[in-house]
Design goal:
Layout: H1 9-39, H2 45-82, H3 88-150
Helix pairs in contact: 1-2, 1-3
């Protein structure tokens, strides 16, 4: 029986899963940073924007990897199914990565939900501060208008000696 040559796409798929795992790690770190930023009362919006931008780039990479993996999988699925004995180690390795990726994805979903709540609270707090500033501006304006009306008469402490 001649030995079948292994499909060269399978190591690429394993490498793709490994890279996806690294990107998910980076996203989890960025979620932690985002959480810390949202909990910081002196949050610099520019810093927050940088974190969101970094996360967006990671997600784009993730999408590209997913598309590439799916394309490769479509090419090799019959080979994997028909020769499970030959690819036993590779299949086990991919299954292990997929379990880890699923766990990391679940962690990210929890982080995202928490950050969404923090962001909602942050925006509510900022909105409240804006309302308070507007209210105090109205009070100052009203006070100024009232003072202007009372100053139409003669000043109270005028010297009438001439």
């Amino acid at each position: 029986m001649e030995k079948m040559e292994k499909n060269q796409y399978i190591p690429v798929m394993i490498q793709s899963l490994k890279k996806k795992s690294e990107i998910l790690d980076a996203i989890m770190e960025l979620n932690i940073r985002q959480s810390e930023e949202l909990e910081n009362p002196a949050l610099d919006p520019d810093d927050f924007d940088k974190t969101v931008e970094e996360k967006s780039k990671q997600i784009e990479q993730l999408d590209l990897l997913d598309d590439g993996f799916q394309e490769l999988f479509d090419r090799v699925k019959d080979d994997l199914k028909n020769h499970q004995d030959i690819y036993r180690d590779e299949i086990a390795q991919m299954q292990d990565y997929i379990r880890k990726l699923t766990s990391k994805s679940a962690t990210i979903q929890v982080q995202e939900a928490r950050n969404k709540d923090l962001m909602t609270k942050k925006f509510a707090s900022v909105h409240k501060q804006v309302r308070e500033v507007r209210k105090s501006q109205r009070v100052v304006n009203q006070y100024y208008k009232n003072m202007m009306k009372t100053n139409y008469g003669e000043p109270v402490f005028t010297d009438k000696k001439k």
